[in-house]
Amino acid sequence: MLKWSIVGLGFGMDIHAVLETGRTSYVYTGFGIAAAIGLGLFFGRLLRVPFNSAFLISVGTSICGGSAIAATRSIVDASEEETAVSLTTIFVLNSVALVTFPVIGAAVGLTQRQFGLWAALAIHDTSSVVGAGLRYGPVALAVGTTVKLVRALWIVPVSVLVAAWFRNRGKKAWPWFIGLFVAAAWLHSSWPQADGLSRGIVAVARTGFSVTLFLIGAGLSREGLKRVGWRPFAQGLALWVVVAATTLFFIWRRWISV
């Protein structure tokens, strides 16, 4: 199921539009992702969060939430409990962002373009970016969705780098789905006649992703949550607050834009 969920991320994304948007934002996007992952691991070590959970929360916060966690969990050989705790942390913060971001954006006077960029950089999952953008306005929705989809492509290099690092440490994990991810985006852009096939695969992929996340969540017990404790959530919250506040300040000062 998981391989279909990852492949499905590539469909519906025109690779030419993605590359065009990426040229205007790849520098600060790449720097921001690297900084967020590094800071998340620092917070995880400070709070004594197990490495796998700390890494998954950091990747989920810096790239695209549950999709990034699902894509990298096998690379670091995370248990279902570690994965479920990471997903729970991300999903709770997603819900908070969906309600609070439009209020904060209006309070500081962000334009719709500014808000869309902020939502894409600081809200974990694409679905919550869409929800927040809908509340703020059509331009915010368009900007937020486009930038978030471009950001999601960073799953590819991050997964490859992490897999290479773990292989050097003696593990044999390799994200073989990465080639399928890129091929899916290319197929959608280069073979418009296959649009019906693409839509069908997208439907299967989304179902597979939902089932995957459900099975992970079903493996999380109350006893498991008690064993894990409050530390992963504290790590995720601290990292998210820093990311959201920093990107908001940079966008408000117009130091980054689209």
Report on the architecture of this protein.
The protein has 258 residues and is mostly helical. It has one domain (14-175, 229-252). It is built from 13 helices and no strands. It has helices at 2-7, 15-46, 51-62, 66-72, 80-108, 112-122, 126-136, 138-152, 155-168, 177-190, 195-218, 222-228, 231-252. The longest helix has 32 residues, at 15-46. Residues 1-13 have low confidence and may be disordered.
What's the layout of helices and strands?
Blueprint: H1 2-7, H2 15-46, H3 51-62, H4 66-72, H5 80-108, H6 112-122, H7 126-136, H8 138-152, H9 155-168, H10 177-190, H11 195-218, H12 222-228, H13 231-252
Helix pairs in contact: 2-3, 2-8, 2-13, 3-4, 3-5, 3-13, 5-7, 5-13, 6-7, 6-8, 6-13, 7-8
Gist of the model:
By secondary structure, the protein is mainly alpha-helical. The chain has helices at residues 2-7, 15-46, 51-62, 66-72, 80-108, 112-122, 126-136, 138-152, 155-168, 177-190, 195-218, 222-228, 231-252.
Secondary-structure element string = HHHHHHHHHHHHH
Helix content: over 70%
Strand segment tally = 0
Mean pLDDT: 77
Q: Sheet with the most strands? A: none
Whole-number count of domains? 1
Low-confidence stretches: 1-13
* Rg calc: 18 Å
Judged by helices, strands and strand pairing, the structural class is mainly alpha
Question: Helix count?
Answer: 13
Structural shape: globular
| Head-to-tail CA distance between termini | 35 Å
Strand content: under 5%
